[in-house]
């Protein structure tokens, strides 16, 4: 869990490590805090787990607070999340009240004397309204903002306008008519986390066995929360087509984020759809080594998202040199360069997905080449040390 920047020597070049130390020195007396709404499940918790540790290691006092919420609060913020990604929403007064009230309540017992506050995603966005603002505040929004529901956006803007900076995950998520400075940060993965570090064959075998995953047939996997935007039901349709040509297995592995109340329902639907198919294995577990073992073993990794803020799972698979077939949405095309580091398919093109998966299963040399290119691409662009540099830049901009 505890990360030290020295541990990244040999993974990233020495120049990157030196630059981090040089840039961090300036902030050695600064105290900053990250706030989000879940400590596990989903990409944000994943990044913060490593980043907070590293920021402390380079000498910045960095805290992490989790917004407290109830099931009704999280069911509203999940609706907000969906509407920010383009869904309709019935934005009632009661929804606004519950949303704001939990933020106000949290602000009462969470005192912030930091030099900088970084708020992640919509759940804690209104907090800013309930503090005397003594320091810069940055809103880091990780969701796909390419076409947010206009009514919701107008409402959320009343909080966003109080911020000093907004950070989004893609150039086309920047918003028009927002007079707040907007930056783009691509998310990153931690090559040293239990999820991404190299595993030896014995451990991989042990974990696959423990979770009942035979390896006598090629494995296709999608590792994603059971969420409609991740389209697990679409993955099953792709698998059924692939199976007509190549004998293989599908593993759908999805954890539950504590701030996502829809997951259970979607999981149950998927269980109903797959209960008669012995070659589809469903796993609902919070287990990083298992995810690592699956991503390291898969013959093909699918990411069939309909919307995707970034999609860390794609970089995780590429880092392990896996061939990826993924939707051409959100942040995925930054990671999958079609024909070079994997294949991109339009999100609703089920036969198109199946065709590419079949190609990769039948052409291991091509699969290997794409996987190797993927590793190089991730190493250059999507490792956690780059996020650390991005935040040092942010501090430079807002603290001076
Ligand atoms: N994840 C996991 N177990 C699961 C499913 C997902 O640990 O069963 C992790 C996954 O490996 C990745 C993160 O959750 O690190 C998901 O991040 P991503 O950006 O892909 O999607 P998000 O959930 O944030 O929409």
Give a description of the structure:
The structure is a single chain. With 400 residues, the protein is of the alpha/beta class. The protein has 2 domains: 5-188 and 383-399, 3-Layer(aba) Sandwich (Rossmann fold); 201-381, 3-Layer(aba) Sandwich (Rossmann fold). The protein is built from 14 helices and 12 strands. The chain has helices spanning 14-25, 43-57, 71-84, 93-109, 150-160, 201-210, 232-243, 263-274, 288-297, 312-319, 332-335, 350-362, 364-381, 384-399, and strands at residues 31-36, 61-66, 116-120, 137-140, 165-168, 181-184, 219-223, 249-253, 280-283, 300-303, 324-327, 343-345. The strands form 2 sheets. It has a 6-stranded parallel sheet with strand order 2-1-3-4-5-6, covered by helices on one side. Helix 1 (14-25) runs parallel beside helix 14, helix 7 packs across helix 12 (350-362) and helix 10 crosses helix 13. The longest helix is centred in the last third of the chain and has 18 residues, at 364-381. It is globular, with a radius of gyration of 21 Å. It starts with 13 loop residues before the first helix and ends with a helix. It binds uridine-5'-diphosphate (UDP).
């Amino acid at each position: 869990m505890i990360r030290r920047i020295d541990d990244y020597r040999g993974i990233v070049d020495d120049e990157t490590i030196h630059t981090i130390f040089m840039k961090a020195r300036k902030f050695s007396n600064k105290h900053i805090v990250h706030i989000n709404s879940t400590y596990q499940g989903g990409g944000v918790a994943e990044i913060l787990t490593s980043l907070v540790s590293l920021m402390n290691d380079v000498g910045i006092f960095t805290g992490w607070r989790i917004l407290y919420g109830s099931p009704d609060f999280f069911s509203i913020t999940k609706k907000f999340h969906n509407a920010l990604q383009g869904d309709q929403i019935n934005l009632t007064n009661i929804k606004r009240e519950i949303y704001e009230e939990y933020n106000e309540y949290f602000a009462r017992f969470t005192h912030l004397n930091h030099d900088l506050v970084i708020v992640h995603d919509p759940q804690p966005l209104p907090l800013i309204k309930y503090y005397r603002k003594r320091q810069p505040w940055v809103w880091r929004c990780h969701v796909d903002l390419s076409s947010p529901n206009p009514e919701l956006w107008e409402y959320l803007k009343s909080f966003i306008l109080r911020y000093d900076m907004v950070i989004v995950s893609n150039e086309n998520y920047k918003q028009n008519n927002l007079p707040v400075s907007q930056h783009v940060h691509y998310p990153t993965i931690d090559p040293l986390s239990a999820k991404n570090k190299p595993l030896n064959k014995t451990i991989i075998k042990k974990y696959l066995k423990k979770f009942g995953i035979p390896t006598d047939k090629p494995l296709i996997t999608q590792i994603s929360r059971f969420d409609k935007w991740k389209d697990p039901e679409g993955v099953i349709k792709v698998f059924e087509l692939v199976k007509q040509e190549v004998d293989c297995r599908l593993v759908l592995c999805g954890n539950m984020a504590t701030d996502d109340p829809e997951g259970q329902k979607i999981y149950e639907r998927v269980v109903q759809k797959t209960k008669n198919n012995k070659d589809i294995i469903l796993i609902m577990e919070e287990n990083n080594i298992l995810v690592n073992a699956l991503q390291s073993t898969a013959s093909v990794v699918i990411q069939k998202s309909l919307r995707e803020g970034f999609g860390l799972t794609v970089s995780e698979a590429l880092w392990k040199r896996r061939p990826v077939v993924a939707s051409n949405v959100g942040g995925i095309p930054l990671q999958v360069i079609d024909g070079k580091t994997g294949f991109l398919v339009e999100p609703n093109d089920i036969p198109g997905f199946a065709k590419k998966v079949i190609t990769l299963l039948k052409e291991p040399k091509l699969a290997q080449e794409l996987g190797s290119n993927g590793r190089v691409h991730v190493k250059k662009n999507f490792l956690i040390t780059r996020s650390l540099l991005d935040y040092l830049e942010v501090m430079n901009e807002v603290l001076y």
